[in-house]
Automatic annotation (TrEMBL):
Residues spanning the membrane: none
Residues forming coiled coils: none
Protein name: Putative endonuclease
Matching InterPro entries: GIY-YIG_endonuc (IPR000305), GIY-YIG_endonuc_sf (IPR035901), UPF0213_domain (IPR050190)
Pfam families, sorted: GIY-YIG
Residues in GIY-YIG domain copies: 1-75
């Protein structure tokens, strides 16, 4: 299983990435040992998540999200949040 995620950084910026081990990757980000971008903006918090069956599909989706404007990313996050509320 592969994951595409969006993190909200301490300065309210958004970081998008992909991984095969979500828990480990978020911990690595928060230890300052993942990306240069998040290292200077700790702590980070997971605000969006998608799952994929293949690495290629996850990487394509990561690229698509990275091309989005901040406004579009916030809508994506908001829509997933609404869906999660309906499910729960």
């Amino acid at each position: 299983m592969c994951y595409v995620y969006i993190l909200e950084c301490a300065d309210n910026t958004l970081y998008t990435g992909w991984t095969i081990n979500l828990d480990r990757r978020i911990k690595t980000h928060n230890k300052g040992k993942a990306s240069k971008y998040t290292r200077a903006r700790l702590p980070v918090k997971l605000v969006y998540l998608e799952t994929f069956n293949s690495k290629i599909a996850a990487q394509r989706r990561e690229w698509e999200i990275k091309q989005m404007s901040r406004k579009d990313k916030l809508m994506l996050i908001k829509n997933q949040s609404k869906l999660n509320q309906k499910i729960n």
